[in-house]
Amino acid sequence: MPISCPLRFQPLSDADFAAIDRSVMGCCYASQNALGRLCDERVYESDVAARLHAQGTNDVQTELPVTVTHEDFAKTYRLDLVVGGMVYEFKTVAAFAPEHETQAIHYAALTGAERVKLVNFRSVRVEGQLLRSPLWRVDRSRFEVGKSRWRPLCDSCVALLTRMTALLGDWGAFLAVDLYEDALVHFFGGETQCLRRLPVVRNGLPLGTHRIACHALDVGFLVTALTHDSSAHESQLVRLLHCLPLRGLQWFNLNHTRLELVTLSNGTRTEAKE
To answer: What does pTM read for this prediction?
Structure first.
């Protein structure tokens, strides 16, 4: 199976969720009261699990593995705490950030869970943020490919596009972009060959280096998940590209169920047609 998890997630009724959450959050408050706000996530994870077991809750799992595979590529994610089929992701941060929500929705998409709750132990009082997955009833296997602005810059570009569409066919859309990018890096030489630090030069003045994935000697690629204002991001990519020793970039943008392909050539904006 391309996505495997030892637990099958079922939808929870509001009443079942409320009962589970009341128990879990009570243990989270007790854990912070006893340990303070400065411990690592894993410490709170272990303590909350121990408290749940002590009060008679048996359906408790920590570090639950979820493995994503494609041919010889594999990446395993671990869910911090799962209680009665409810996923909790622990944080020790000053405040929740958008990337924390993205991570939680990614876990929901991987497992098919309806709800995921973020819990922060670093705040003055334990803070919780409940997220309902917008993907719970979405068929992630259905996606379309927009190629009107794509063209191959080298032979490897065709292979890159073929691999990206194969990953989407295997895993579906709406997963974290770093998963798709990690897989592409794997199939195009691995980190030592594919990930490079290239010199950034402005008007002949060396300024430092920039890390970028390259599927060919002078062509790079990147994956994003922008659902609006992609033109602003494109203008930034063009500026960066002008300072790099690359012929161009292949840009994959996952816009909901649409894979948008854009080829950016160094010095000109590509307007290739299908």
So the answer is: 0.91
